[in-house]
Queue: 2 jobs
Job 1
Amino acid sequence: MKKDKPKISFTTGPASDVVRSAPAEGQSRAQMKAAPAAGKSTVMPKSHDASKPLGAGATSGLSSSTPKRHSAPLIAQAAPRSMFTPVLAVVSLLTVGLGVAAVFLWQDDNLQAATVPARASEQTKVTAQGVSEPASLDSVTRAATPDLTDLANRDQTGKAAGGSVVANLAAAVQVVMYPAENPAVVLQQTPVAEEAVDLVAEEMQVLRAGILAGDYEIDVIEQNGVGRSSLRFIGAEETGNAAKAVLMQAITEGRITAPKHMWTAEGPVDIDTLMFDLVQTALAADGTVEGADAARDMSRTTFMVSRIQSSKVDGKRHYTVGAGDSLAYISLQFYGKPDAFQRIVDANRKTLQSPEKIQIGQRLIIPS
Amino acid sequence: MIKIFVMFAAVLVVQVGTGVAKADPSLGQASFVFDGETVEITPNSADAVKYTSRFARLTASCDPNCIAPQSAAVGIETVIEPQVLEFLENTVGEGTGLLVDARMPEDRALGFIPGSVNLPHAAMAKREDEGARQPILMALGARSFEDVYNFADAQNLMIYDNGPSQNDAGELIAHLLEVGYPPEKIRYYRGGMQVWSVLALTVQE
């Protein structure tokens, strides 16, 4: 469906730029604020999952409320007044109860992460050394496919530790207090299409200079309860927007093709992340120490202020795709680089055939 | 009428459905699932005197103070026992937080609060190798990239030690803040084992 994207007609460049950048100038900008107060933030992972718009959560809500609505009025007509109250009480208790039970059962099968985080820990046992062994994995979903790139979830013997937070922390304390090898994660880098850079060569000069001078900010803007990050060129907003418009136009007309990981779940190209990637790659490749440092700082800053949230199921990080997400954006938030997306693709082979096929509400494994 | 009734029934069923009647923190009770097992905390422990004298006898660390300050650091809330019990029931029970024992393993071996984890303050101490603390932060839910961390997914922590005569919790909190752990995700239970045992709350060994 989305393979024909270059031909799909959608809002043209300038229009979508206005939409994207308008909140940045308004009052809704959240200045790199950290997560809410500890007490309240405990609810966040749940509500995040529950807000999944097109996912299964919505369906389960429907199935539970439908029976309630029909049965209550029907009974009311059939029963005489005096019997009305007890009969109605029993029946409504039963129907509502079944509805609620259905939701719980349904979630057990499909949404373990969303309902009870503690449940994940039930499947593991902690040994004296604090290294966990997966006890029963018969209830695994697609999510639990063994993942060889998942370095952080391995104990010292290299065995995957499926584990609970408690077991992982105990293992980490062991590793730190009695140091052993701690494998570093190396991120691969792939260049963005050169033709795209040529199209906006002039703008790129200005934007690159701005980044080198440190004139940029990573804004975190609240959208539907989710903090979204975006790069803002201080003093060069117009140049940035002009470059995005030119690129969008070229992509819409099919003159250039955006990489597959730059497509959002809704359809249009994630022009903000594409722009980030173009500027960063140009800096990293300019052969100077300053350029390389500036490129690195872009990653570090974006990573630090990111408010993207995930939940853990069976020791694995899961992220639910939201509106406006591209695989490049998700990769930038979790790994500091738009082009580290291949790790996510590799970890989700069964449910994600191609990077551009991500869907809103889809749950992706994010290898640590 | 029907609507009110159905709503009332729904509320009732939901309460029953979500199971476990909550224990009352103000009565010194807590009941929650921790690491796959149900943990119960009750008042009137028969071993209270044994533990009280054991924790009282530990020499004060006097580093930097012989009596721990009221607040561990700027922006860190100090909590009392009912808050600890509520934190265990709700936050720890939900898997979004950890009750952290900041003492060294030999002190923890004397007894600890059920449902707590041990993160000795020395494990988080600053070292030459900046990356040495990374595995612990990752286990607490932080994400790491090069030498920086992101704490959007990090656990809420409530940190304690032996009690007002010790500063292990203060040390650990200082180390966590130093690496950027958000202060609003950290709370300090100053009473520690000393006050916990005087109140005859359950101690585990």
Note: The mean pLDDT of chain B is 88.
Job 2
Amino acid sequence: MVLEVSQIHTYYGSSHVLQGVSLSVAEGEVVCLLGRNGAGKTTTLRTIMGLAPPRSGSVKARGREIGGLPPHAIARLGIGFVPEDRRVYPDLTVRENLLVVHRRGDGAGRAWTVDRVYELFPVLARLDSHKGGYLSGGEQQMLTIGRTLMTNPRILLLDEPAEGLSPLVVQALAEQIMRLKREGMTILLSEQNLRFATHLSDRAYVIEKGTIRYEGTVAEFEQNEAVRHRYLMV
Amino acid sequence: MELSVLLNQFLSGLTRAGVLFMLASGLTLIFGVARVINFAHGSLYMVAVYLSYSFLRLFGPGGMGFWLSLVAVALSLALIGGAIEAGLIRRIYGREHLQQLLLTFALIYIIGDAVKFVWGITPKSVSRPPFLEASIPVPGGSFPVYNLFVIGLAALVGVGLWLMLARTKLGWLIRAVAADIEITEALGVNVPRLLTLVFMVGTLLVGVGGAAAAPLTVGALGMDVEIVILCFIVVIIGGAGSLLGAAVAALLVGLLEAFGILALPQFAVVFIYALMAVVMIVRPWGLFGTPG
């Protein structure tokens, strides 16, 4: 398993946000974490990343326990985090946004460079010397993904990448993530946009009130109207 | 009024601006990146001036002694700044401003007493290095070459800092941390180490500024509080976190002080406070700062 989360409990102050979440992602797999607003999707990813450390439970990356490590150490073990609200560096140019966090990975797979990111997101190449803060929402989303790829991660954690983007941009983004998948990237994706997520994923988890309520292949999930209805209200 | 007097005041103002800029750029860098309001910044300046006295005695008064002392003071201050960050300030990141204020305010007293303990209460002065002792003729008088050296050094420091922030990966990292600490750390950057480094760069600038200012001033107790107020005025006028703002505001404050003395010898400082008041009313975030 590239990532194995078992029975994590995470609190924000006294509020018990994650109540025993377990999930796993295998090499080359795209897995989505579905749930309504406030269900615990973002907290799950933040817990894996060390930004909201779990009070109990275990997070393992390729067999190694990473729970309790500082975020930068977790990132250096190959976990690439793409935050939900984009958060590009507004005063840095597109190229600087990419180069500032560039890091050689562990040598597995083809290394990411600025040119390779521009190949995946051609629109960024044209914006090379523009400041991140002046990009559109979709461009910023591509830049945030590209920025994380520059750290040469073994797994990408994508937090609601389609949120707030127009349907056309979402479609383009889906194609680009598909391409990443074909190139062998392992991805854990949190989403509310079911069509976007199921189109990309191999397996799905459904989270509700901090607990995993369902897990299965995307094909199974698409047959299961009851789960979709109860937890995702569609 | 004679032109020569105006020219002389202009050059004096520039010199003062140069020193203020070197100090305020460190203060604004530390605030912009680490979000820490360091009231002890002026105390570090005082330490730099006293250290210049000691290092010049150690290395001798010649030109070589001057350069060695400048480097030694700068490195010492970087180490002191790094120790203060790693030992104390690191514990209060993200806490309310009052705690930062109390901690750095306490440092003013601690450093003040430490200076008194090490160097005593007699004021200490140093002389200009021999190769910069001359004066150059200016219309109607002469002007010390050393002051021109300080002006040039400040310009060099400003350009160097700008190049570092704009062109180097370290500069991008510093700006990335200033914009978003959490995400930068989640992308694999060892932010705690970077913050220590930023503190060291900020206090290194105090070291350069203090060593450069030493021959122009007298090391005396109380100089810490006097200078820190001016540094904060510069940072507030220029906009907290803005290097360009620190440069422009240092020029404004330095020149206003020099020409204010001509207009109202007893109350020159009033002009500076008036300028700050106007800026705070019109642009509370400073000339080159960003609102919010």
Note: Chain A has one domain: 3-232.
